[in-house]
């Protein structure tokens, strides 16, 4: 379980093609402190398992399913990534409930800078639009954000200087892919309501 509060900007230091999977080596001094084999670390919002850990780097295997459903397949050596360790029991939930299970990918469509913040418009896959509401929560590349405007095939978020400085969204440009995870509570409500809820 994560909160969508990014702990640090890490970096991809190696990518190994394993055929139907890839092995990534990533640098992140904060998230690797005390890391052990089998621990979970969210990388751009994708929950990955630590395979090896040495110094301030760790490796993680990414299977084809994850590469197909997320933007991790586009990562290369030198790519910057958002990193977060799982929430500790009893810690503050600074963002919202994030599982690290990506629902799909979107594309940065537009950036509108202002004096103290920036509005970013992101495309939304058709099958996810029903989960997005104004002032609701969404996870973009592992970042817990509040939806400003929910359109038919897009949504917008406002980014404060801290988010722009300390996460990948400060560097993403129009055309760049991002990982999206909708609020899991909305998905459970839909499931409980059954066909009548899904049809609306």
UniProtKB/TrEMBL annotation:
PROSITE patterns: LUMAZINE_BIND (PS51177)
Sequence ranges assigned to domain Lumazine-binding in this UniProt record: 1-96, 97-193
NCBIfam families: PRK09289.1, PRK13020.1, ribE
The UniProt record lists the keyword Membrane: no
Biological processes per GO annotation: riboflavin biosynthetic process
The protein, known as: Riboflavin synthase
Annotated Lumazine-binding repeat ranges: 1-96, 97-193
Enzyme class: transferase
GO molecular function, one term: riboflavin synthase activity
